[in-house]
Structure prediction request, 640 residues.
Amino acid sequence: MAEKTKYDVSSIQALEGIEHVRKRPGMYVGGTDIKALHHLVYEVVDNAIDEALAGFCTRIDITINKDSSVAVTDNGRGIPVGPHPSKKDANGKPMETVDVVMTIIGAGGKFGGGGYKVSGGLHGVGVSAVNALSEWMTTDIKRDGKLWRQEYKRGIPQGKIRQVGKVEKDETGTTQTFKFDKQIFTEDIDYRFDTLVQRFREMSFVTRGVTIRFVDERADREMTFYFEGGITSFVRYLNRNRENLHPVVHVEKEIEGVGIEAAIQYTDAYTESVYSFANTINTIDGGTHLTGLRSSLTRVINDYARKSGLLKDADPNFSGDDTREGLTAIVSVKHPGPQFESQTKVKLMNPEVQTYVTQVVGESFATFLEENPQAAKAIVAKCLTSARARDAARKARDLVIRKSALESLTLPGKLADCSERDSNRTELYIVEGDSAGGSAKQGRDRHFQAILPLRGKILNTERARLDKILGNNEVKALISALGTGIGDNFDLEGLRYGRIIIMTDADVDGSHIRTLLLTFFFRYMPQLIEEGHLYIAQPPLYRIAHKNNVKYVYSDKEKDKLIKEIGDKASLQRYKGLGEMNPDQLWETTMNPANRTLLLVTVDDAAEADRTFDMLMGDAVDPRKKFIQTHAKSVRNLDI
Prediction:
């Protein structure tokens, strides 16, 4: 249990005002898109998690109401109520402490160590920024046997805080209810249940002993998380469809007030699944804790392999890539003074953390290898195979590059290129088969749209190493067309097309090809997804003609509705493939920027996407069968 620290009105310190939050939401929540919308929820839940880290909260309830307002309730200490000792209002009178917390940027119990030893918050802007960006927000506080309420509209207090009831003397906690402001979030967006579920699952894994219950009243869905095993359970969850080489190695230690925790397990996979957290926040861009974990594992494995004679004198040391193949690991740090790259907290910057993690993980993993020689040999054998395959891949990649350089400046012969050379204006359509490729080539706008037809299904990159992948002709053509290189040589600056659009048939084969392509991009060119370059085209399913009117619809539901409106005399054509459309139809419905619908491929949660791709494209059959049976009736498409 964390040391109990004083938490009253004197714990709340204010740094600056919030006047420009509404003008510059990107500075505080990363923008006004759906990612920023979810960030509002994360900021409020992070406050409740901070109470858990301080040892005062055991339960957090999150509810999305039917009107898309969100309520977050914790059983922590409750925000202190009463006049603030130092912060004054415009009239020189002491401000109410709750208003200081809710309306002043940088106000909170996270500065100076007064209220929290460890906190996910750094700048203290979280809840006040959410308040400023909400149409309305209500704060309910249980404390000292009383229930208090304060209401806000677009960050402005609506009168003074008032007592609205009584509670049991020992009953404490805070409920924050808010409705995002459509004056700020102007796109047609709403919260995604699955996105929030992944975040709350992660929070529960890295905050042992806390129950997180999530209810979505819009769709009558509910999930509750509680993991006594913490990040060890997280690693087992990620690896449940993989063959493990050894039990999970877990280490937990505190150095200089910084808590270090890691869980490590090698599997038979060909890719790395490593995730880092700082004060329960998923640092998706890594940072010093992730660097420390990786470097320590590489050093320890090399030392063991040398000492045990598994690496000969003539053999080079394993590289970091060699020691990360098949690695699943979580590193989680609890730091009293975290330094993040930005308010959205995607990268940890504290330099001392790298030293601490390297030391703690290095000592523990070295001991594990010494005490478990069978597991150690399996891990080293995995690294040796990886090193040989990586060398073969380098030679194959060099061969691809050399061969491509001799063949029309790296462009594959089947590529129908566009005339525009500014990559910000160009598009590459990846289509299946020569028939669809022919229609797309004739129907496109040659000025900015390029077409790359693929023959048949590309290699399943989830079940192959890079050297084998680079031997596949369709993959080689794709790499050459994009111009970015692959693996160690990947460079986004070389990307020849600003939009890469996967355009496949609306049938089982088309879905499979699309998933194979998505797997390839997720595993070997994730930067294309992260930077928003990858899209999925949405060709129509039906052409419905009635008298002189022709309409295209994209789902059975749309079709049924339209036929009901115009009667049974309509002429109905079902497109089984893109090749059945003439070039003009394909242009008008699927390729014309004025009419088409494109789905942007994003990965909101890398850990869950990793697990899903592994399940759908890996070797284990039973989990895939169960997943398909469960989701078959409700799925629109399985794309991540």
